[in-house]
Design brief:
With 120 residues, the chain is α+β, with helices and mostly antiparallel strands. It has 1 helix and 7 strands. The N and C termini lie far apart (66 Å).
Length: 120
């Protein structure tokens, strides 16, 4: 009598653990978090658009990526925060974002790395 119950518990446990990586969005195959180190290539404060130029080391070529920056989005600069309007062309940035399956991006955070003396 005990053997069938033990087998059922083992099978149920294996099912729970195999589904765990996809629970609650963790490890979701739908979105990938990415990070780039680059510099401001262009910024449009009115439309809330930021273009960042960064070096793709895999192909040894510069790439540009465009982000839509929501109203009120704060950018970290050292211990302070700044608005998009305070960025200038050439400012070094570290940008963390999600890349969605449709190719769109969603910002997680932006750090003006000039506060740390960093360049890309």
């Amino acid at each position: 009598m005990r053997r069938p119950a033990a087998i059922i518990l083992i099978i149920a446990g294996a099912a729970v653990f195999s589904a765990a990586p996809y629970c609650c969005g963790a490890g979701s195959p739908e979105r990938a978090a990415k990070s780039i180190h680059g510099e401001v290539s262009s910024v449009d404060w009115v439309s809330g658009t930021l273009v960042v130029k960064w070096l793709d080391v895999e192909f040894d070529v510069f790439q540009e990526i465009s982000f839509t920056v929501p109203d009120g989005f704060k950018i970290k600069k050292g211990p302070n925060t700044i608005d998009l309007s305070e960025l200038e062309i050439g400012d070094p940035l570290i940008v963390n974002y999600y890349e969605n399956p449709d190719g769109s991006t969603e910002l997680i955070n932006i750090n003006d790395s000039a506060a740390f003396g960093e360049e890309y």
